[in-house]
């Protein structure tokens, strides 16, 4: 494991694999370089690129400097870009996709961006998170109620059925999700009011591919379509036969084709 110090002094843990143009992977809620889609994606993507995977602040091997702000997470990505030589491609998933949008809009030297199913609120999504989600999550974390924070994020922020947290508690993933619970208020902050940021998207002029899976719910596919249409240089790609937990063998050829052309 390698580390780099972000602008505010936070230690960001990362790994580098492969060779070629640099791609930085930005995870969504709960996930890290060692948990979630990234561990399976890295070895496949590293056949074509230098892949930097990392732990977002307050996760895994990364530290956490207070107070939090989305700008500080953008600075974390900037520190990793500098590690990779000063420019990069970016790939972001879910709330990590939204963080990538903010990073590019803030002027980071990103050549191309791919985002997977940014979870904005649209008319296709009936569930709307509480407006004070970030505050409630911060209170739970401050009180040491990590399990409650995980359940709150799943049920109230994301809006999954009650059976999902129950099933997850029976899997090895549950303890890993709890381990990264301190960062859940940060995902809520990144998402803000969950509305599509039209002005932010209009300011992004680099090529962006917005990916959704054909078997994902409409609540995830619709925001991807809207975002792609609002981006000046945006395109949309639908992955046939896939769900939100997309197969690397299906995803990577799309990334290779987009980044290399």
Task: Give a description of the structure.
The structure is a single chain. The model has no long low-confidence stretch (mean pLDDT 95). The chain is globular and about 45 Å long. It is built from eleven helices and eight strands. With 261 residues, the chain is of the alpha/beta class. Helix 3 links the parallel strand 5 (88-93) and strand 6. An eight-stranded mixed beta sheet has the order 1-2-4-3-5-6-7-8, sandwiched between helices. Helices cover 41% and strands 18% of the residues. Helix 1 crosses helix 11, helix 2 (70-83) crosses helix 3 and helix 3 packs across helix 8 (184-191). The chain has helices spanning 38-45, 70-83, 95-105, 133-142, 146-158, 163-168, 173-179, 184-191, 198-202, 218-230, 248-260; strands spanning 2-5, 11-17, 22-26, 50-54, 88-93, 110-116, 208-213, 234-239. The longest helix has 14 residues, at 70-83.
List keywords for this structure.
261 residues, alpha/beta, eight-stranded mixed beta sheet, 11 helices, 8 strands, 18% strand, globular
Count of alpha and pi helical runs: 11
Beta-strand proportion: 15-25%
Rounded to the nearest angstrom, the distance between the terminal CA atoms is: 32 Å
- The largest sheet has its strands arranged as 1-2-4-3-5-6-7-8
What is the H/E string?
EEEHEHEHEHHHHHHEHEH
Please report the total strand number as a whole number.
Answer: 8
Classify the helix fraction into a percent range: 40-55%
- Gross geometry: globular
Would you tell me the structural class of the helices and strands?
A: alpha/beta
Low-confidence runs: none
What do the pLDDT scores average to?
95
Note the main sheet.
8 strands, mixed
Q: What is the CA-based Rg, rounded?
A: 17 Å
């Amino acid at each position: 494991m390698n580390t780099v110090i972000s602008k505010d002094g936070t230690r960001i843990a990362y790994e580098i694999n492969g060779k070629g143009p640099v791609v930085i992977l930005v995870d969504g809620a709960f996930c890290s370089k060692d948990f979630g889609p990234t561990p399976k994606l890295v070895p496949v993507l590293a056949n074509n690129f230098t892949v930097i995977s990392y732990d977002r602040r307050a996760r895994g091997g990364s530290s956490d400097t207070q107070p939090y702000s989305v700008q500080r997470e953008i600075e974390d990505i900037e520190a990793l870009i500098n590690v990779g030589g000063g420019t990069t491609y970016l790939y972001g998933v879910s709330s990590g996709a939204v963080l990538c949008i903010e990073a590019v809009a803030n002027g980071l030297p990103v050549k191309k961006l791919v985002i997977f199913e940014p979870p904005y609120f649209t008319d296709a999504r009936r569930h709307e998170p509480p407006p004070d989600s970030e505050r409630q999550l911060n209170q739970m974390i401050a009180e040491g109620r990590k399990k409650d924070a995980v359940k709150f994020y799943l049920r109230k922020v994301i809006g999954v059925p009650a059976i999902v947290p129950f099933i997850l508690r029976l899997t090895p993933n549950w303890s890993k999700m709890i381990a990264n619970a301190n960062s859940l208020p940060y995902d809520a902050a990144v998402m803000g009011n969950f509305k599509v940021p039209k002005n932010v998207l209009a300011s992004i002029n680099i090529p962006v591919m917005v990916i959704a899976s054909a078997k994902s719910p409409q609540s995830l596919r619709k925001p991807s379509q809207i975002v792609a249409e609002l981006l000046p240089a945006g395109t949309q790609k639908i992955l046939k036969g896939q769900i939100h937990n997309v197969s690397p063998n299906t995803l990577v050829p799309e990334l290779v084709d987009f980044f290399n052309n």
